[in-house]
Input
Amino acid sequence: MIGKYLPLLASSLRRKRLRTFFTIASILVAFLLYGLAASLQFALKSGVDVAGADRLLAMHKVSFTQLLPASYESRIKAVDGVVAVSPQTWFGAWFRDERNQFPTFPSDPEAYLRIYPEIKLAEEQKQAWFADRAGALVGRAIADLYGWKVGDQVPLRSAIWRRLDGSDTWDVTVRAIYDLPEGGDTRQIVLHQDYFEEAKQQAKGLIGWYVIKIDDVNRAQAISRQIDLMFANSPAETKTSSERAMAQSFVNQVGNIGAILSAIVAAVFFTMLLVTANTMAQSVRERTNELAVLKTLGFSNGGVLGMVLAESVLVTALGGLLGMFCAWWIGVQFGPTLDQYLPGFRVPPEAFTKSVLYMLALGVVAGAVPAWQAMRLRIVEALRRD
Amino acid sequence: MNAMPVEVAAGTSIVRIRDLVKDYRRGAETVRVLDGLSLDIQQGDFVALMGPSGSGKSTLLNLIGGLDRPTSGTLEVDGLRVDELSEGSLGRWRADHVGFIFQMYNLLPVLTAERNVELPLLLTNLDREQRMRRVAAALKLVGLEHRARHRPRELSGGQEQRVGIARAIVTDPTLLLCDEPTGDLDRKSGDEILNLLEALNAEYGKTIIMVTHDPHAAERAHRVIHLDKGMLSEGSG
Ligand SMILES: Nc1ncnc2c1ncn2[C@@H]1O[C@H](COP(=O)(O)OP(=O)(O)O)[C@@H](O)[C@H]1O
Ligand SMILES: [Mg+2]
Output
């Protein structure tokens, strides 16, 4: 039924090809911008969502780059409400290319898995990793990146830590490869703290920070305070907060970026609204005579209104879909490269849904006034204007 | 097209106008263009409507075709009170009963000849194949079947007007309203258009009302009506 009007719609777009092209191109750019902004916000936010609220981080009060005594572990474990504790240290691992460091932490393997239950790995791999002091738990993304398999021995280099023999090469064996639920970042390696402590040359008896799992999310603040109080007035005071709060403060900072992005996108959409409305107004004005002829032939006022609106929506939908496609393509194409700095950079599904609504809204609003004018057009007056 | 012998239809009024008044408002003042005129046009007739510029010929034609509404008076076409129809039903009525032919052809420039002719059929329930068959028949009747895929600017004025005629007759209306159909054409093309109108009248029984100020064109009609200062007077055709 609608299909038979398509040639009529398409032909009105062909009327001024260049103008149609520019209008569609600017809408394309607007939606591309929207898609990229949504991808960026999604990437920034995904870091927070995965961070558990029942996890605390205890680090040096002065700076998180300063080390803490390894002896704190047992004292923290004794605090009421603490379920598990694991030390962690930034290892500065790289492979092949020193500029591509990836997160690698010597930890207490069993405690680590208890603290991060979302980590998925095969039972026999888990046991194999527990059993091998020089074994590594490797994230799927890293394993795929370098083509590592369970059982492979890999010479990890450290940008920070030297072994007792002065070498910066740490031979570890891939014992287990883990996955995370959809969207999780698996660019990470976990090593044995015991092995690290034994083999490293410097900073003996010191670790980077502690990750702590607690039994009651609501007591996160109280437990944090209790831990910090325990080490107050010692040479290495601690600052404990929940992982989510940390991530949250990070996000609050990037939240401002998000707000700026939203403002820019809103401004761009508003401009597009004006551009499209102007195009439609011109297009209708030029076709006054044609619209009057259509009415003469029996096209109803509502029909003419619908036609102009459909034309407007066709323009915004064409530009919008192309723009979202470009944004999607950029995510697919460059997402993996960006993963290192900005994991999860891709157009989130809800942004696609929203974009379709925006296309419809933009088309309808931009076409509203011209469509209304076309509807109100009086045949005899329009035909006399020739 | 339904062939309809003229003799059978003769004597039946297809257009019946009584005391028709049309005022236009121009700013604060009201201008009376048609001043209480009455007129009967027989089914199958070919009428030329003449008169000086601005005398209201187009206005009268537009009223008969339901493009505009009279200020007062009655207007009956084929037994139906056109002046009483709502705007929506007026549109549907036009689509079914009236074919318009304009001086400037009024084709859609971006559409091919056949798409232009198809336009009125989009409002019907015909499927694409049926529509294209009718379009082909109409274009053949005006002798333009070989120009179906041409756009208006690729056609001569006379050819454009023939596309206009094909568009007007594709729904097989009984009434053809032509507003100076040869006004923008040279003598030769104009004659071809008049031949076509004559044939549509004689062979297909279309009732034709043609506005013209060209006496040469008016000669082709069976009946000539003069309009001046809002009043009608009969002349010989
Ligand atoms: N829509 C309109 N609004 C105001 N005046 C009009 C309108 N249509 C026609 N007129 C006036 O009515 C008169 C008759 O116009 P018209 O019917 O076009 O004359 P014709 O076709 O005989 O040249 C003219 O004076 C014209 O200016
Ligand atoms: Mg006129």
Remarks:
- The CA atoms of residues 249 and 255 of chain A lie 9 Å apart.
- The first strand of chain A starts at residue 55 and ends at 60.
